[in-house]
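Supplementary Methods S3. Complex input for the nicotinamide-adenine-dinucleotide-bound model.
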Amino acid sequence: MSGKILEVAELIYESDMTVALSGAGMSTESGIADFRTPGTGLWEKIDPMEFGSIDSFLTGFDMGKMIDLLKTIDISSFMGAKPNDGHKALAELERVGLLKCMITQNIDMLHSVAGNKDVIELHGSFRTSSCMNCGKEMTTGKFIGKVIRTGKIPPICECGGIIKPDVVFFGETLPLDALSRSTEYAERCDLMIVVGSSLVVYPAASLPPIAKQNGAKLVIINMEPTPYDSMADIVIHGKCGEVLPEIVKELESLI
Ligand code: NAD
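Predicted complex, serialized as structure tokens:
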């Protein structure tokens, strides 16, 4: 693996514009389960259509089932999660000018907490919740407080509208600005590094082929194979929290 780490470091060093695309695997070492890892992935515990789709959210969750679910997925590990060494390595790359932009499918805000300044949150974030009618925004902490007080999901705004976390549910479109900015970066970059994503959720998974078709090199760092491994210039099957700091270490010796 060390040969590949050096090769990735050299690609970053030679690149004029590197962008990274992260998925849920980026945060498993921070204690947040991803969706699809066998044994620990959330989709083995949650029916995505029951708790992940906009239609089911708007119809109202079954609170009994929701409470049982919260017991099994340990929500406190999400709320208390901290950036891991992989997040810190990506923040360091941006700090020294070697990473232009961090595109993420994650809603956990850990790239921003780690220090990345230009983060495109393709699926929104857990930072805020908004009324779908009047647009009034509140922290998601306040949203949760309202749910606990009323015992209902979704909670209702003073205007009568439904309050929803500002994350993208199945069946919703992605925020237009995030999608157009990330597509533009995919078209303009000369190196895209994918970290911790199964690359099966679209349109995020269309960004690596867009980058490749526009002449960029593609690096994939993931524990398991992805559908785009054969298209990539370098594939490393390893943990983000181990591989990314090693790449940064190699770069320090190149700079
Ligand atoms: P995914 O669950 O489909 O894939 C995660 C991939 O990461 C898997 O292929 C797995 O092998 C790999 N992986 C797990 N731990 C890893 C590690 N430590 N190092 C390297 N690879 C690792 O997730 P996805 O591709 O992001 O797509 C699905 C959706 O998951 C997205 O819509 C995202 O919004 C949502 N999601 C986000 C979070 C979060 O915010 N942390 C958590 C769960 C799901």
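The beta strands are 18-22, 101-104, 119-121, 124-131, 137-139, 163-167, 191-195, 217-221, 234-236. Residues 240-254 form the longest helix (15 residues).
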